[in-house]
Specification:
single chain, about 900 residues, Arc Repressor Mutant, subunit A, three-stranded antiparallel β-sheet, about 60% helix, AfsR/SARP family transcriptional regulator, DNA-binding, WH-like_DNA-bd_sf, BTAD, two-component regulatory system
């Protein structure tokens, strides 16, 4: 039986397995299996090439890790039909994989919902179904990979918790003896997990074995004292007291691990991995600080970990002088005489257990001094703190708490909406809207909780439309919540009240930035130390995993900054000036030796470019016209042809008083965009008009050279050879005369293409080869790549074997340059070359990729530059529904064995 139509499942809760239906699937040797395991562990998130290479080869990378990765990925795609394994800006990602991890979690969600509905027998079966998926250590094949250590620990914690919850559900069915048998095994397997002992004591008590129940508590008390030097926690102590007093309510309590008031009333969604990591950190470190922005759920995580009564709330401690007495009182010190500090030390020495300090940000220095002293004087003490900034204590380990994952955020919204609208069932459209709502609210738990309560009033889509005024629309925090603030706005304002004047000024200056900003923009005005402080205080988030550091603000914090900005129009205008200056600096680099890096930088800033252009179109249209024209090659090489032309058209209409030079440059850029969309007639007309407008103006001689260069290019293919030849030779002469570095090799290239169009094939090829040499000497990678592509096109038509090596070289250069338009042009010609060489399968693969990309963009590579004879039917009809990827095509064309 083949794999066609079979559902692929991936099993990682033990040795790695892939199955198609009931058949095992072979995906290759150790490294392909390892690659797939790493991608599955990322759970749909992109994994960078560097991270994958490190995971596959450690510190012994192959000579060409990128190419080798592409080969492995291509093989995996062929071995796993129907699997969405794709490359994105952040690396490779495996989307929507059916894994036993997801099935395990799905069983847990169902089981917990059944518990909430008092269907304990069904819940026990669901927990059992979840646990049967485990076959050993999770991600067993990646045991030596440090990047999956926390993932494995989180999964093991989820399994251990599921074992306890399953036993509790069994106990709640009334099968007390069966629960005792299960729990004896569980306490033996993990004797330091106190909840297991609590459940065992309860099961024994309900079985009529009161003495054995009391003995179970005393067994764990002895174990903890002798091996760890600690006393049992509050839960065990409570159940011991209730057994001794023969509390009548004990026999009817479904779950005895928490007394009333210990746990929140709402379910805990989306932080299981963080809870497991906190457990692991506290087990190995004496001070752990949970750090995150307002509304991220730091307090809730602490309460889930320690219990409500074990958390010392510091939000209401306004006077630092009262800190010690408040902590002492919360820790159970009562009626003390003398120094409360000494009483607190004695209490902690006597009773052990962790000290949990919540909301420390406004008392960071005082809390830090207290914690240092307590850790020094109480050797067994563990401290967990929550704060919007680290305490800055030696030996401190931080647990950053950011937004929920997209799936967890939707799950939280769904759970809370159901709580306010019983019987509500989310349809596909609702789930899509919930995801949009979650993203708009930064996936912050507090904002999501408030939004869910407002769905009753506005509906999901209506609420999304109201979020420009999110602080008013989201309303007040419900009573009895663990959040110390009355509204989301107050929660954010609390953070800002702790900032210095310089820090507040920088935060407010950053709100117009869309999609983040680079280091130089964040630190230029106020200095690096101010930026560092904002990151430490969770006002700005730093992303340092890529090649360059990047900084961003949550939308909720941006909204607050905008609301307190005394002059938001000036702040927005300053951001627009930054965008103009960025593009002005980049214009020359797009044509030079740094063009690849500049393209990557501009792509990162695309949201900022759009915001700056939108501002200038409304308030400074001439500046918008200049910026859009300078971005010509960015629009082209990114495949954003229609967007670029929309901006240029709008700017030309909005700036009727712009100078001749600005207007001509904009029209020239627009002509280039029209050409790459296949509208050659419009491109030629616009360039002819531009040339006439400046042809007699000596001040615009350099601009004329550019226009004449583009005039030569747009005659290719199928244009007038005489026009191409006269335009290219004149452009080359002016460029040489004015020593315009980038234009000399570019016009030599256009000249060579024009010679070939004129029938002077050998002379034209020599000129193109000379253009490659000139471009290489000047460091103009893009011009060299295009010259090679043009030369290869003439050789493809002639059946010359030199075409494929030239196309491979050209493709590598365009990949480095980030030029999607010309990558597709190379692949188009590569398909022709492979077809001519007898490699029909390779040609078909390249053709499918080009057709699919062409159908999903404005790029028309088939008509680019030199006329090619395209076999009838190559690009007719609809593109393939599930085509090979660009990576597959690149791997086929760059493989040394392609075309035999």
């Amino acid at each position: 039986m083949g794999l066609h139509g079979a559902v692929l499942t991936f099993a990682v809760l033990g040795p790695f397995e892939v199955r198609g239906g009931d058949q095992p699937v072979h995906v290759g040797g150790r490294l392909p299996r390892r690659l797939l395991g790493i991608l599955i562990a990322a759970e749909g998130r992109p994994v960078s090439e560097d991270s994958l290479a490190e995971g596959l080869w450690g510190d012994r990378w192959p000579r060409n890790p990128t190419g080798t990765l592409q080969v492995y990925v291509s093989r995996l795609r062929r071995a796993l039909p129907g699997t969405t394994l794709q490359r994105s800006a952040g690396g490779y990602q495996l989307l929507a994989a059916d894994t036993d991890v997801e099935r395990f979690r799905g069983h847990l969600v169902r089981a917990r919902a059944l518990v909430a509905g008092n269907r304990h027998a069904d819940a026990h079966e669901a927990f059992d179904a979840a646990l049967r998926l485990w076959r050993g250590t999770p991600y067993e094949d990646l045991a030596d990979d440090e990047s999956t250590t926390a993932i494995r620990a989180a999964l093991v914690e989820q399994r251990d918790s599921a074992q306890e919850e399953g036993a509790a559900a069994l106990l709640a069915t009334g099968d007390h003896a069966g629960a005792v048998a299960v729990l004896e095994l569980l306490v033996h397997a993990a004797p330091y997990r106190e909840r297991r002992w609590q459940l065992l004591a309860l099961a024994l008590y309900r079985s009529g074995r009161q003495a054995d129940a009391l003995n179970a508590v005393r067994r764990v008390r002895t174990l903890l004292a002798e091996e760890l030097g600690v006393d049992p926690g509050p839960g065990l102590r409570r159940i011991e007291d209730r057994i001794l007093s023969q509390d009548p309510a004990l026999a009817a309590t479904a779950v005895a691990d928490a007394a009333p008031g210990d746990r929140p009333l709402s379910s805990f969604v989306g932080r299981d991995a963080d809870l497991a990591l906190l457990n692991r950190l506290v087990a190995t470190h004496r001070l752990v600080t949970v750090v995150g922005p307002a509304g991220s759920g730091k307090t809730r995580l602490a309460v889930e970990w320690a219990g409500r009564d074990a958390v010392v709330r510091l939000a209401d401690v306004a006077d630092p002088a009262h800190l010690v007495s408040e902590v002492a009182a919360a820790a159970g010190v009562t009626g003390f005489a003398g120094d409360p500090h000494e009483a607190l030390v004695r209490r902690l020495r006597l009773h052990g257990g962790p000290l949990v300090l919540d909301n420390c940000e406004h008392l960071v220095d005082e809390v830090a001094r207290l914690v240092v002293d307590l850790l020094d004087r109480v050797p067994a003490l563990r401290v967990v703190a929550t704060s919007r900034s680290p305490l800055g204590v030696d030996g401190e380990h931080s647990l950053p708490l950011g937004p929920l994952t997209a799936d967890d955020a939707v799950a939280l919204l769904t759970d809370r909406v159901r709580a306010s609208r019983p019987g509500w069932v989310a349809r596909d459209a609702d789930r899509r809207d919930l995801r949009r709502l979650a993203e708009a609210l930064d996936r912050l738990p507090l904002a999501l909780e408030l939004a869910a309560a407002r769905v009753r009033t506005f509906g999901i889509r209506g609420l999304i439309e109201q979020l420009d005024d999110r602080f008013t629309v989201l309303g007040r925090v419900p009573h009895s919540t663990m959040n110390p603030h009355a509204t989301l706005q107050e929660a954010v304002a609390w953070s800002f009240a702790l900032l210095s004047e310089e820090e507040r000024a920088l935060a407010v200056r950053l709100w117009p930035y869309e999609g983040g900003l680079p280091l130089e923009a964040a630190a230029s005005a106020a200095g690096l130390d101010v930026l560092v402080s904002l990151v430490d205080q969770s006002v700005v988030t730093a992303e340092t995993g890529g090649s360059t550091a990047r900084y961003w603000m949550l939308e909720t914090i941006r909204a607050y900054c905008r609301s307190v900005d005394g002059d938001p129009a000036a702040t927005r205008a300053a951001h627009a000036v930054w965008v103009r200056e960025l593009v002005a600096r980049a214009e020359g680099d797009l044509r030079g030796v740094r063009s690849g890096a500049t393209m990557a930088a501009l792509r990162r800033e695309l949201p900022n470019l759009r915001a700056g252009l939108a501002h200038d179109l409304a308030h400074a249209p001439v500046e918008a016209l200049r910026t859009a024209a300078r971005l010509m090659w960015f629009w082209i090489r990114s495949g954003l042809l229609a967007e670029g032309n929309r901006v240029l058209t709008a700017a030309l209409a909005a700036a009727p008083d712009a100078s001749l030079g600005d207007v001509v440059r904009a029209r020239t850029s627009s002509a280039g965009l029209f050409y790459f969309t296949g509208d050659v007639t419009t491109a030629r007309r616009m360039l002819s008009e531009a040339g006439l407008a400046v042809g007699s103006e000596p001040a615009y001689r350099g601009l004329l050279a550019e226009i004449r260069y583009y005039q030569a290019l747009v005659q290719l293919p199928g244009g007038d050879p005489a026009t191409a030849l006269s335009a290219s030779t004149e452009a080359h002469a002016i460029a040489t005369e004015t020593e315009t570095t980038w234009l000399v090799p570019a016009t030599a290239m256009a000249w060579g293409a024009a010679l070939i169009m004129s029938g002077r094939i050998a002379e034209g090829r020599d000129r193109l080869r000379a253009a490659v040499r000139l471009a290489d000497a000047a460091g103009r990678v893009w011009t060299a790549a295009l010259s090679e592509l043009m030369l290869a096109q003439t050789l493809v038509e002639a059946g010359d074997g030199e075409a494929l090596p030239l196309l491979r070289s050209s493709l590598r250069r365009f990949l480095d340059e980030g030029d999607l338009s010309n990558q597709l042009a190379v692949l188009h010609n590569g398909a022709l070359a492979l077809e001519a060489a007898g490699d029909a399968a390779g040609a078909a693969l390249l053709r499918d990729v080009v057709h699919f990309r062409q159908a999903h963009s404005d790029i028309r590579p088939a008509g680019t530059f030199l006329e090619s004879t395209v076999p009838r039917g190559w690009y007719e009809g609809a593109p393939p529904a599930a085509p090979p990827t660009l990576d597959d095509a690149i791997a086929v064309l760059t493989s040394p064995g392609s075309a035999g």
